[in-house]
Amino acid sequence: RRTMPEKHSAHKRKAHPEGTTAPSSKKVAPSPAKPSAKRAATSDNKDALKERHRRAVSALYDAFLKLTATPADDSSADAATAFNALLEGAKGGTPAQRVAARLIPRFCARFPQHLDDSAVALVAVSTSHSSSRDPEAVRALSKAARPAALKGLIAVCDAASQLQSTAGGATVARIATALLRRLASEAAGRAQGSAGSEAACALECLAAAFRASSRIVLAATLQAMKSEDGKTRDGSRFFLGKLLAPQNP
User: Which is it for the CA torsion 172, 176, 177, 179, positive or negative?
Assistant: First the structure.
């Protein structure tokens, strides 16, 4: 029988000295996973976000209490500061936006110098959407805030139309243009046999704006037909069609 060459045998002894074993090829089971630092940080971030939402909503209700504690015609510096807090709330998170959308229309007429700011704030809320990563409760608040903001634009439009000024007319035109763009989905929904509830709300608000300032709204509608934005053009055509349609007796 042939024997292993001495040189090769010595090499094996050197690689695995006597009393030792070769490394096992068997896989070692992983140790139990430790709590993820990233997961813990995410939980902390969620808690911090909830606290910020709570503080923002609390600040809005504080402003609301200050405004209700003063006479309805009080537009003093303190009252204006409280109203500005409502406008700032519309720029915040979804819970604050929902509260601001309900409170701004209640007090906007008291502060004519902030009517255009009120329109900008409510238009922004009416087009805002929560992230798909947000909890279901937050998405529900966002869905409720948008129609509230649209309906709130009626109060802003009424107050602006009563100013009988260039600034008031510009605010009405701003509102009308924003609502016309929202009507594009209404037009698409009608073509498919179903209309979106928010677009229907936008149509209701635009009709109210037309009753308050028909000349300004009509001018804004005609101007919107020349817009480079397709949705604005579609919405203006849809609204003109509603205006020209024969009314039911």
Answer: positive
| CB contact at 8 A, 122 and 156 | yes
95 CB contacts (<8 Å, ≥6 apart)? 53, 56, 57, 138, 141
3 state DSSP class of 21 = coil
54 pLDDT more than 50: yes
H runs (alpha helix) in the chain: 6-15, 37-68, 77-89, 94-107, 115-126, 136-161, 166-191, 197-212, 214-224, 230-244
Closest CA to 233 of 187, 171, 172: 187
Distance of alpha carbon 144 from the chain centroid: 10
Q: Which CA distances in Å does 102 have to 63, 144, 152, 190? A: 13, 10, 7, 29
Encoding tokens for residue 96?
């604050």
For residue 137, give both structure tokens. Answer: 């409760």
DSSP class of residue 27 equals P
d(CA 135, CA 122): 23
The pLDDT score that the predictor gives to residue 84 is 96
Does the pTM exceed 0.85?
no
Provide the CA 93 distance to its chain's centre, in angstroms: 8
Decide if 203 contacts 183 (C-beta within 8 A). yes
CA distance 24 to 48: 49
